[in-house]
């Protein structure tokens, strides 16, 4: 990987200074990372031009309460110092012969290098709580479990979009995901942080590029094959969420098209699995109805009837949203942050509706599938 390392560059000197500071902050000394008990897990970190965020991700892996047997950074033909950052922290770096075009492609390329019974996939902008890997491992003691995921909380909560996503995640992982887990069927093992049985991954062909939501596709493929997925709320990851509308748009376009693509792709398989059929049907119907109501019905009714009070429909479900969010915030001692972020959630929800309706129209009506993978940060 020497072709990606420029040891005499200003970037290197800046990174070396920052990396030394990170090691001191986390009490990491070269050669001391692997003193924790090693577990049979290979961590795959797909990375394309991630020099700014990769070091924090790797340090969070190197300081886990249990040490993964191997950490592999998949440098997907980056044009920055991604390889250098990984090499300086002592992890293995592999590089496809050409850019794979997506996170799914990079991860599947790396699967051939895995020699452990378990695989952990983590985004290059995501850090983990110190015991996250240790908390996920026991899920696989249950026969038939092929994947396990944890909670997701934005690492930075500053802009309106980060605040909206913060509330969205608190609500989802405090309420929706726990309900799904109670039924034994989390709807998705989050792509930013999930663990898998390697043999199940290989049987599924790795992460498919046939949709833009490879994590959803993989989760539903597991269910269709009779596998189980578990949600462990105590295992927490912290991704960097979009801080401006440009990156938010990239992410929402990918997510909304990916969801519609997966519904279309798995519709026959979903019919055979009652809990998955119902969960997906409710989610899809709710997204369509909510989007139409938010974007068209409420404002048209308010105009037609001359009654602006109808616009309160945009926030009528504040109590239903706020209670689970505040429950989650209390546990994290972040009540003030949650309260200040609640208004941003309703703005984000309206934007979500716009992107979902557009995706449904393009994918299902015009038959124009969106296939370009765009980074969301």
Helix content: 40-55%
Instruction: Give the second-level CATH assignment, the architecture of the domain at 2-242.
Output: Alpha-Beta Complex
- Based on DSSP secondary structure assignment, what is the total number of beta strands? 8
Task: Please identify the top-level CATH class of the domain at 2-242.
Answer: Alpha Beta
Largest sheet, spatial ordering of strands: 3-2-1-4-7-6-8-5
Mean pLDDT: 89
Q: Largest sheet, if any?
A: 8 strands, mixed
Per CATH, what is the topology of the domain at 2-242?
Spore Coat Polysaccharide Biosynthesis Protein SpsA, Chain A
Entry keywords:
12 helices; 50% helix; 377 residues; disordered N terminus; alpha/beta; globular; eight-stranded mixed sheet
């Amino acid at each position: 990987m020497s072709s990606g390392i420029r040891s005499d560059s200003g970037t290197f000197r800046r990174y070396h200074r920052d990396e030394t500071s990170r090691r001191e902050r986390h009490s990491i000394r070269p050669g001391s990372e692997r003193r924790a008990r090693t577990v049979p897990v290979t961590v795959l970190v797909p990375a394309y031009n991630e020099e700014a965020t990769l070091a924090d991700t790797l340090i969070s892996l190197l300081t886990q309460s249990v040490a993964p047997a191997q950490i592999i950074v998949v440098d997907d033909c980056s044009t920055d110092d991604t390889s250098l950052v990984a090499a300086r922290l002592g992890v293995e770096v592999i590089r496809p012969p050409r850019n794979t075009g997506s996170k799914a492609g990079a991860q599947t390329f790396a699967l051939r290098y895995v020699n452990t019974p378990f695989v952990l996939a983590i985004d290059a902008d995501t850090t983990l709580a110190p015991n996250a890997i240790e908390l996920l491992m026991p899920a696989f003691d249950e026969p038939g479990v092929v994947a396990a995921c944890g909670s997701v909380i934005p690492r930075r909560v500053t802009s309106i979009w980060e605040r909206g996503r913060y509330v969205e995640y608190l609500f989802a992982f405090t309420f929706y995901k726990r309900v799904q887990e109670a039924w034994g069927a989390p709807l998705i093992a989050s792509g930013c942080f999930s663990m898998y049985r390697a043999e199940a991954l290989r049987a599924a062909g790795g992460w498919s590029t046939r949709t833009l939501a490879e994590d959803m596709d993989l989760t539903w493929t597991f269910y269709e094959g009779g596998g189980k997925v578990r949600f462990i709320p105590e295992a927490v990851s912290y991704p960097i969420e979009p801080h401006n509308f440009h990156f938010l748009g990239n992410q929402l376009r990918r997510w909304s098209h990916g969801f519609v693509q997966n519904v279309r792709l798995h519709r026959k398989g979903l019919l055979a699995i009652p809990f998955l059929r119902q969960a997906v049907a409710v989610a899809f119907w709710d997204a369509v109805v909510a989007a139409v109501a938010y974007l068209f019905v409420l404002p048209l009714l308010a105009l037609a009837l001359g009654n602006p009070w109808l616009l309160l429909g945009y926030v009528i479900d504040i109590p239903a949203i706020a209670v689970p969010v505040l429950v989650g915030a209390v546990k994290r001692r972040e009540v003030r942050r949650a309260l200040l972020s609640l208004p941003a959630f309703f703005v984000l929800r309206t934007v979500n509706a716009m992107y979902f309706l557009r995706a449904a129209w393009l994918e299902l009506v015009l038959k124009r599938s969106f296939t370009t993978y765009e980074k969301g940060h």
